[in-house]
Amino acid sequence: xxxxADTGQSTLPAEPDGWDPVEDDRTAEVRRLLRAKRRAHRxxxxxxxxxxxxxxxxxxxxxxxxxxYHFLRQVRIGADHGGLGQDIQHALPAxxxxxxxxxxxxxxxxxxxxxxxxxxxxxVGWLLAQPVRRAxxxxxxxxxxxxxxxxxxxxxAAALVALLRATRLAGSGEAAxxxxxxxxCLPLLAVALAMAVESRPGWAERVGRWTPLAVALLGxxxxxxxxxxxxxxxxxxxxxxLWSGPWGWAAQPVLxxxxxxxxxxxxxxxxxxxxxxxxxxxxxRAVPRLSHAQLRRxxxxxxxxxxxxxTMEPRTAGLAISEAAGGTVRxxxxxxxxxxxxxxxxxxxTLALLRTPxxxxxxxxxxxxxSAAAGGAGSAGGQGGVILLVLALALGYAAVSALAEPARLExxxxxxxxxxxxxxxTLMRWHTVLPAALGTLLALLAAVPWALAGRPxxxxxxxxxxxxxxxxxxxxxxxxxxxxxLLFTGIATPAGDPGPALFxxxxxxxxxxxxxxxxxxxxxxxxGTVDAVTAGRVLAAxxxxxxxxxxRAARGADRLVGRGR
Length: 565
Fold this sequence. Notes:
Elements: H1 3-6, H2 27-37, H3 39-77, H4 84-110, H5 121-125, H6 134-166, H7 172-199, H8 201-229, H9 235-243, H10 246-257, H11 265-286, H12 292-310, H13 314-324, H14 343-355, H15 357-380, H16 382-402, H17 405-412, H18 424-431, H19 433-452, H20 458-464, H21 466-477, H22 499-507, H23 509-522, H24 532-564
Helix pairs in contact: 4-7, 4-8, 4-10, 6-7, 7-8, 7-10, 7-11, 9-10, 10-11, 12-13, 15-16, 15-19, 16-19, 16-21, 16-23, 18-24, 19-20, 19-21, 21-23, 21-24, 23-24
Keywords: Membrane, Transmembrane, Transmembrane helix
């Protein structure tokens, strides 16, 4: 390879020095050899893939067939969907902009550690070391990623078509033709953006730096969509969205199909197609810029992530992704050390949080989502209200769990706790203080809008949920090694082996207990006034859960110490 490729730079030429691209090119011979050698492996892989697809189709038909039949029957008889169709019309500009930017953000962040061109380790270690054209080897992976992204986008596109048909906004054929440009072009644009990030090392750092602003923009778009549904639309803002980029160009034919005014939709489709073609051409040309060292690092990261997922160790996979993406942004912050030895743990946790503000930002985003779901639970009532309540508690757990990273770091490697004279079980209790306190504060802030909207009980109920959720996060940190033996119990039931269900129950025991108990205690409280009995019930449930989960965390810490000896 070239010296530039060995040092990880992305300069051209891409072909190795010392061989002539015309006389010594062995790309065709090497690819024929690999096809012959891999023929048996590909046959077995295709069989395995066919079995997997068959199982997925069987599950989809068995578990989703009844719901699909009921939905289609309601469509055929013309069920009354109320004002849902009008709400969809009003929210389309903001929704398309939000979904497009979210897809672009996810693709850009994925390109920080993987990207659309990621090749297996043997290809990097052996094939690219041969006298072959790098572009001929790497470009098929780009187009494979592009094709898979389009296939993945067809499912939500089909759901949107069915929704437009069910609400009688458009016929099936008209809706399908209107959604098709978005379903094809927007995923390809996301792949092109990911290719730009992958081929330019400096862009990865910019993506990490601009992510908080992008998340804030997504939140504003969600608020705009909600305001549009409630009848407070902004015509100027919607016109800007419809003509400012691919997100609006893709929405215009859908708006026209639903009866909204979109006079310039042919020009919008033409601009979308031309932009997509130009972006994919640029991505195609950028493939040879990928260096050998960069491809080797990404292949190793993907192998670690895949191994972590196959062994049911998602934290291992997450740490590998974080390290490959450049780690967490750290800031130099100093705090005066405390005098008491017990408050040292709280001081270290606070200092770590101030030095990694991204964790606090993630917690704030999850808390805002939990607040929105909780407000919906209070408005919906019935079965929908229960589902939204459980969703709100799950999002609240995600917010508090983002603040409990020091506890997970302590249990990842017990040698990290050697600095403290305290026992590990005591350390775990102290690691619960900061997530519980900040979680309570975030919940209180998230409850203010609902209190101003006439639901003052949110100021009491939402903060009470933070301490038990924080204790559940610490219990998860003390879980210990993954018990993969639970996956295969050998017990035959009409639904199959219960091993996977048992494993999920073991792995998520603490959050399931806390979320289920809090949902039972809060059921009916968000929608109505809170009397002393209801407040006492929720307070007692939160206190009992917190105490029981802390006891469970202490026992888990003792087991970890005993296993490490």
